[in-house]
Amino acid sequence: MRLRVWQRLFLVLTALVLGSQLLTLWAQQRVFGHGLLDYVNGLDRSRAEAVVEQLSALYLREGSFESLAGTQGRFRRQVLRAVAGSAAEGEAPMEAPARQRDGRRPPRAERSPGAGPIRPPPPKSSAIDFFARLKLQDGQGRDIAGNLRLAGGEALAVAVNGAVVGHLVLAALPQLNDAADLAFARQQTQAMTLTAIGVVALALPLSLLLARQFTRPLRSVVKAAHALAAGNDAPPVEVRGRDELAELARDFNRLSELQARNRHLRQQWMADVSHELRTPLTVIRGELEALTCGVRAPDADALRSLSAEAEQLSALIDDLFQLSLADLGALEYRFDTIDLRELLGDAVAAHQRALDEAGLAVSLSAGPERLPVRADPRRLRQLCDNLLVNACRYSDRGGRIEVCASREGGWARLRIDDTPPGVEPEQLEQLFERFFRVERSRSRAGGGAGLGLAICKAIAEAHGARIEASASPLGGLRVELSIPLEPA
Predict the structure, then answer these.
(1) Residue 371 shares a structural domain with residue 442
(2) Cα–Cα 20 to 30 A to 177, which of 68, 244, 262, 463?
């Protein structure tokens, strides 16, 4: 079974929520359990400090702990009295009963009811447990009272007038054993568990909604991509927000528009190629039929006409072949360091006669400084020739062409301006498209096939250069080539 993206995303979010809640619940239980145990041990230490004060008062009054030796009952009463807060309430600590002169205790009947305070109430289980974790030692570390089997614990000093007279040893609880503490811990665990269950129950539908909402643009893109794969026009994908998915939708819409445009251009390309090839072939066939039928004599004019059409057809085929090679990246280039100023001067000189015959004046401004560039001399000369032919072909008689070469930063600039007619601003970006001609009604004798500037663009891109068209201050067209200068 193949899971969809939103299903996988939902499962991942669900696993994250469950895992995080289980981890949080486990951590809370551990932290709470240790915290509660530390809290109980802290309370026991406070009680032990109260017992230390009680024992200090007893030692100050009696001068020793002999009255507690061997008698767990009195030590227990001292502990319980301290725990109950009797000392804090001003009650006198329990005194030893008066002894007879022979050192024996008086009979029970002779003991005065006022000889000591009222016995404390029976201790609770927590108090008994607390007492079982206490042991009293004298100043020499000998066990006196309490749980004498106690192996270790925290020793609290019993001091009288700044002198340590003994230690009260308190063993910490290793774990909770009081019923009230355990009940409180269970209550907190249940509350945390119910909270975790509530969070999971709330997070699951939200995760499902988020997964569906998050992948909605992807589903739209997939649907449109299937349409493109089938060769159909894809419906535009709805764009929402500014996140990565919105950028994906926008890029896909641009891709779809570009594919539709390329399909249209490909169809237009085939139509233009067919038209451009058909025209000279039709002329040649007509000329041959006229010669064959005897309508036209096979003189020099007829042969020149056939030769001109054949040359035009050959030039068109050469241009198409070069553009195909450029598209495939197979157009041959042999780069070398050349002087753009010198190459441009040779190109202008080569076209001087054609410009004179067209009634156009040409001026070259290159300056004395060399413009070294890394280029293929033959291809760059072809680019310059195409630009000059284009300016000559589409400038009215009596106009002029200005050619300028200069250095601007790390770039060599070649600029060619001509006189009217000009080009509409909305058509400037289309000039470098194949078979585009500003005026389709021009005769083929005056206008070319519309491939010259497209070839110029391919050559410029192969040299890492930029070529742009804009309106010329002379009223015609300006074409500017920017090519990187060769480092000195």
Answers:
(1) yes
(2) 68
Crossing angle of helices 377-393 and 452-462, rounded to 10° = 150
**Tally of CB atoms within 10 A around 109:** 5
Residues 482 and 470: their CA atoms lie apart, in Å, by 14
The answer to whether position 214 is within a domain reads no
- What does the alpha-carbon distance between residue 48 and residue 82 come to, in Å, rounded to a whole number? 8
Domain count of the fold of the chain: 3
Composition of the chain by helix, strand, coil, percent to 5 = 55, 15, 30
Does 225 fall in a domain?
Answer: no
- Confirm whether 112 is domain-assigned: no
Considering the domain architecture, whether residues 264 and 319 belong to the same structural domain is answered as yes
Q: Which domain holds residue 149?
A: 5-94+120-179
**Are 35 and 148 within one domain?**
yes
Per-residue confidence (pLDDT) for residue 352, from 0 to 100: 93
Q: C-alpha 321: how far from its chain's center?
A: 45
As a whole number of angstroms, the distance between CA 86 and CA 61 comes to 17
Mean pLDDT by 10 residues, the chain (488 residues): 73 85 80 77 84 86 81 78 56 40 44 42 55 82 81 85 87 75 78 85 84 75 79 74 77 82 75 72 82 81 80 76 69 87 92 92 89 92 91 91 92 94 87 70 48 86 92 94 88
The pTM assigned to this predicted structure is: 0.47
Does 201 reside within a domain? no
pLDDT of residue 127: 62
Same domain flag for 407 and 424? yes
478 in the same domain as 373: yes
pLDDT, position 53:
87
Which of 281, 280, 229, 273 has the alpha carbon at shortest distance from 255? 229
Element (H, E) at 320: helix 300-328
Output the CA–CA distances (angstroms, integers) from residue 368 to 343, 344, 380, 400, 409, in the order listed.
Answer: 14, 13, 21, 23, 17
Burial category of 414 from C-beta neighbours within 10 Å (exposed 0-12, middle 13-18, buried 19 and up) = buried
Which class for 332: exposed (0-12), middle (13-18), buried (19 or more C-beta within 10 A)?
exposed
